[in-house]
Amino acid sequence: MAMAYFTKHDRNQIIYRSWEEPEQSSARMRILVLKLDHVGDFWMSLGPLKDLRQRFAHAHITLVVGSWNIATAKQFDLADDHIAFDFFPRNPKVKTRKKAADIRPLLTGEFDLAIDMRVPEETRPILLEVPARHRAAIVDPYSMHQIDIAIAPFNLKLRRTILYKLVQKIGLANKIPRRWLDWFIDRKQARLQHVSEILLFLVAKAAAYFESGAGHPQNSTTGNAPIVVAPFSNSSLRDWPIESFGKVVAALSTRGEVVLVARGECLEALEEVANIARDRGAANIRTAVDLSELEFNYLVNSAALVVSNNSGTGHVAAQLGRPTIGIFTASHLPEIWGFRGPLVSMLMSVIECRGCGLDQVRHCPVKVRCKFDITPDLVIAEVNALMNHCKGTAQA
Questions:
Q1: Distance between CA atoms of residues 301 and 318, nearest Å
Q2: Within 13 Å of residue 33, how many CA atoms lie on the same side as its CB?
Q3: CA–CA gap between residue 306 and residue 386 (Å, rounded)
Q4: Contact (CB, 8 A) for 269 and 235
Q5: What residues are paired with 34 via a beta bridge?
Q6: DSSP per residue over 69-129, as a string?
Q7: pLDDT for 154
Q8: What is the pLDDT of residues 342-381, one digit of tens each?
């Protein structure tokens, strides 16, 4: 299940939400596709263009191509409307180009998505001229923040090292294997991606961005559906403090029964979480340890809400479509390891050393400070936001 994350930042935390939907101007989505290529590049990209048409089958697609590719685009039914725009001359040897702003008079209204399907970046300025709510391209998102759906550029050539250039210049390159001067050249070549594969990745990411909970009907739960809380993972570094979990469990118990789940080896710590919650007035709490796989999956699938560290419980809940709150230490980034599902919220510190990849507390030079940047109040606020969204969706 592929979903996009919408992020909300403040000074200390970042919240990742899969359930916020991108804005759309009308009932039928409008997409503008830029495919300003020469003949060979256009034909090489027919697969990704067909995939885009299939993934956005109900959208109205306008395709902008060089005039020499219009007939081919119509032949393969790649769009509903076609616009000719000769940004490049047909002859690739001619280096003159039109201005990016020249695209504007050819367009009508605002688009929900504008996507640049050229792999090299010469046409990105044209994409920025398109009136669109969202833009997608192969680009460094840090340097071009106006493009909100981005995949990082792939290598399109095997760049020569300075040493290899020097050896070429003095005429010895044919006498010395290149790998002696560039140890990783074979590995670099093995990692190269065909341009059509790169574009398929871009199309898939754009499609995931516009997926939402509306397209994934949720299993109904009964009025007695439990709230499942999984306080422990397979790494103590990833585990949110027991005291914080106890406070959250106490607050959650006002919504209904809370079931604390873990392996048997964590029973003592699990009881400590429960006791902290009970000391704060919570009554409706029970523990469940060493459940069989089927028992565990059944419990999670029946839950009204699941709250978890960065652990398997969160991944199971997200994939089953349950409302899921993930509390992440900053060692493992949600962009890489996050839960994927239609009703997911994840919270993480924006500490400078985020993404370290550490798994053991003793290796952390700042004593896993990122654990404490996420407060119980912040988690409860996100629980309320997610559950209010679920309630509003159910009523609609």
A1: 10
A2: 30
A3: 11
A4: no
A5: 64, 116
A6: GHHHHHHTT--SEEEE--SS-SSTT------GGGGGGG--S-EEEEEE--SSGGGHHHHHH
A7: 78
A8: 899 999 988 888 888 888 878 888 888 888 889 999 999 9
Residue identified by tokens 């999956």 is 297
- Domain edges within the chain: 23-154+193-211, 163-192, 227-395
The CATH homologous superfamily for domain 23-154+193-211 is Glycogen Phosphorylase B; (3.40.50.2000)
Q: Establish whether domains 23-154+193-211 and 227-395 are of one fold.
A: yes
Tokens of 135: 């833009």
CA angle 386, 392, 396 (to 5 degrees): 145
* Pair 63, 33: CB distance under 8 Å: yes
Give the tokens for residue 66. 């060089």
Which tens digit of pLDDT belongs to each residue from 215-255? 444 555 656 899 999 999 888 888 899 999 999 999 999 99
Q: How far apart are the first and last CA of the chain?
A: 23
Find tokens 């993404």 and name the residue.
355
> Treating both helix axes as pointing N-terminal to C-terminal, what angle do 293-301 and 312-319 enclose, rounded to 10 degrees?
60
pLDDT of residue 214: 40
pLDDT band at 36 (very low <50, low <70, confident <90, very high): very high
242-252 helix and 267-279 helix, angle to the nearest 10 degrees: 50
Residue 51 in contact with residue 80, Cβ under 8 Å? no
Nearest to 19 by CA among 387, 336, 348: 387
Amino acid 216: pLDDT: 47
Instruction: State residue 1's pLDDT score.
Output: 46
Which residue carries 């340097």 as its tokens? 143
81-91: b (≥16 Cβ within 10 Å) or e: ebbebebbeee
Residue with tokens 């409008």: 30
The secondary element (H helix, E strand) that includes residue 16 is: strand 13-17
Q: Does domain 227-395 have CATH number 3.40.50.2000?
A: yes
pTM above threshold 0.90? no
Rounded CA-CA distance 225/210 in Å is: 30
CB atoms within 10 A of CB 180: 11
| C-beta separation of 165 from 177 below 8 A | no
323 close to 390: Cβ distance less than 8 angstroms: yes
Tell me the residue length of the chain.
396
